[in-house]
Design brief:
CATH architecture: 3 Solenoid
Number of helices: 0
CATH superfamily: Hexapeptide repeat proteins
Strand content: 25-35%
Number of domains: 1
CATH class: Mainly Beta
Oligomer: single chain
Helix content: under 10%
Radius of gyration: 16 Å
Structural class: mainly beta
Length: about 160
């Protein structure tokens, strides 16, 4: 089976972007020569820079910006709402006006290992490395390796 991509018409794809099957892309921007693996979702207002690699099963939500040459491992999840709720206090289903999207920035040449979770409102510095399975709850300095839950600095590069 081939061609099972869901790419909305409002997606801006750069030159020579490779998108695998079984993806869901809408309202996002993906830079030149980036690669998007299977079973990836990239939501509206997310930005992927040039020459990025997004591995399978990653979830890149609204408010996330990946600068150029960022690596996102398999099953990485970004979070954009610090206090998520399914309903309002009145019991109605929550809508777009009932939450605050908090931006996350991943700087140039950073790498995020498989299975990591990146909470909202953080910046991952240039060339930083997030270890597999880590939970990033605060900013990561440039050229620093972090690991664990919550992620803590292990060493500098």
């Amino acid at each position: 089976m081939s061609g099972l991509k869901k790419i909305a018409p409002d997606v801006a794809l750069g030159r020579d972007v490779v998108v695998a099957d079984f993806v869901n892309l809408y309202g996002c921007r993906i830079g030149d020569e980036s690669r998007v693996g299977p079973f990836v979702e990239i939501q509206k207002n997310a930005v992927v820079g040039r020459r990025c690699k997004i591995s399978s099963h990653a979830f890149i939500c609204e408010g996330v910006t990946l600068e150029d040459e960022v690596f996102v491992g398999h099953g990485v999840t970004f979070v954009n709402d610090r206090y998520p709720r399914a309903t309002t206090e009145a019991g109605a289903l929550a809508g777009d006006a009932d939450w605050v999207c908090e931006a996350t920035l991943v700087k140039r040449r950073a790498a995020i290992g498989s299975g990591a979770t990146i909470l909202c409102g953080v910046t991952i510095g240039e060339e930083a490395i997030v270890g597999a399975g880590s939970v990033v709850t605060r900013d990561v300095a440039a050229r620093t390796v972090v690991a664990g839950n919550p992620a803590r600095a292990v060493r500098t590069l």
